[in-house]
Amino acid sequence: MRTRLIFAFVCLLLIGGSTLAPSRAQNAPERKGDPFPGWNQRVADTKLDFRHYYPLDEVNSTCEMLTKRFPELLSMKEIGRSFQDRPIYCLTLCAQKTGRPETKPAMYIDANIHGNEIQGTEIILVTIWYLLRNYGAEDWVTNLVDTRTFYFVPVVNVDSRYWWFERANNPHSLRQNHRPYDDDRDGRYDEDPPNDLNGDHVITSMRKKDPNGDWVLSADKRIMVRKKPGQQGEYRVWWSEGIDDDGDGRINEDDLGGVDLNRNFPVGWRPRYRQYGAGEYPCSEPEVRTCVDFIKAHDNIAGMQFYHNAARLILRPPGGSSDAGVVPREDIRVYDQLGKRGERIIPGYKYAQTHDDLYEAFGSQIDFGYLGLGRFVFTNELWGSTAEEFDGQPGTSPEDVRAWADEFGMGRAYHEWKPFKHPVLGDIEIGGWDQFATRMPPAELFIEEGFRNALFTLKHAESFAELEFVNAEASDLGDGLVRVRLALKNKGVMPTDSGMAVQRGEDNPVEVTVEGGELLSAASANENFSHTMLQKGKADKLRIPRIRSEDIQYAELIVKPEAGAKLTLKAHHPRAVDTEIEVAVP
């Protein structure tokens, strides 16, 4: 059942954000005023339309428009170049007035690393728009933008997205990047791709009547199913229409590209004979190097979200192995809490572990993020238009998917079979699924899918570690010295560092500094301060190892206050929301 919140959000999007201010009829929060001058009008003037999919140039121009309209929160920069020398952009979203982006814990989100998995880009645009639209109106959104940073890379595989819209494709091309590759090992590169034989600007399938073929018509006579053992065949099928461009007797065996960018990351990488599409070596592809370099350069990234399609899954790592001996149990508990919440936010999606519940994948983003850096990361396999049968229950039979296309495909999802004279095969038929079907919903149905996935990612960011001084009191020791006893809590869902980060040496201590006085010594303590352990090394700040969710750490400081000054304690961790407290000097 649609919630009133989602209904209001969809209504607002469908009218392109054209109203100056939300009305009660839309069940949207009232604005008492603009958070920045002219904010409401700037939001209204964007007139964004999420009822279509965006070609690469339109993605970039939309991002540029948003950064120009909302410079207080949003910036955009080129972070690398693709194999074909196209720019790869990152948008940074945070409230500059509350601190620089690098001083806040960050959520990294990217999409379209596989060229034919496009709708994650639109989800990123929805996420950005939702944050901008509700900043200053929704308290939880305002708090997110004030206390956290968001790094968005809308398109990783920019070359393949460009060609996805520019040339005819089928639903499965082009997954890789555009580095030429000799798939059939004949010394030539990309010389036998699919062809748009009938000139309808889409690559569909070919079939030819053949009693020895493996396919027969289904019960409704419109789609094909594999024949049963002992059954006579009716058709031979080629999944992509085309001809034998290179004259080797095979059709479409050497398509454009390339390297599977999500098999080219530097953790758990395997060579091509072990992992198809892996590339010559880890980070051999400029698109992957761009992502890796950016993430490594931003130690404040606490969580990551990668958008793929089309299996309706919320995937956690690892991808290259089972959990046993790899994932600390305490990390799984955090993943379970976030992932099961995702199942509630996105009905029909299943929270799962990549290796055991989907397939084995080496050198992937998800393993780089977690096994390499110890960050809490997810890959969402987004819904495709054939992942739900006509009655609303999950179904995967050919009858299910065709019935779904009849009802919701708007006449665009499936191309009816039509006769064609092939130059070699003779009399054939061309038809089947459109390139914008099976892997993505019709654009008219995208918006709720986009909002629910965006909400899951925002709730992930909301779960970051968040520091809070439960108590801090000073007592006089004489000789101009005071003793400060403090209790510091992590009130976030996530620990300040994962167990994997500790194993990999990618963890950081929480650092407590003192302003208004000189810190002479620091010691950890038990709850009633009856036992303390002096911190070794330089006493310029208190260093507290990883703080788990809802855990409280106690410490004792010896401070020499400055004359007439107040003491201010500041607690900082690069991947947690910081805090501070004033302490009265006795």
- How are the strands ordered across the major sheet? 1-2-4-3-9-12-10-11
The low-confidence runs, each spanning 5 or more residues with pLDDT under 50, are: 1-26, 387-393
Strand content: 25-35%
Q: Characterize the quaternary organization of these chains.
A: single chain
Total number of beta strands: 24
Radius of gyration: 28 Å
Count of helices? 13
Structural class: alpha+beta
Mean residue pLDDT = 89
Q: What topology does this entry show?
A:
Blueprint: H1 4-14, H2 39-46, H3 56-69, E1 74-81, E2 87-93, E3 106-111, H4 119-134, H5 139-147, E4 149-153, H6 158-166, E5 205-209, E6 215-217, E7 224-226, E8 235-238, H7 286-296, E9 301-309, E10 313-316, H8 329-345, E11 350-353, H9 354-357, H10 365-372, E12 376-382, H11 398-408, E13 414-422, E14 426-433, H12 446-462, E15 465-478, E16 481-490, H13 499-504, E17 510-515, E18 517-525, E19 532-534, E20 542-544, E21 552-561, E22 567-572, E23 576-577, E24 579-583
Parallel strand pairs: 3-4, 3-9, 9-12, 10-11, 15-23
Antiparallel strand pairs: 1-2, 2-4, 5-8, 5-14, 6-7, 10-12, 13-14, 15-16, 16-21, 17-20, 17-22, 18-19, 18-21, 22-24
Helix pairs in contact: 4-12, 8-12
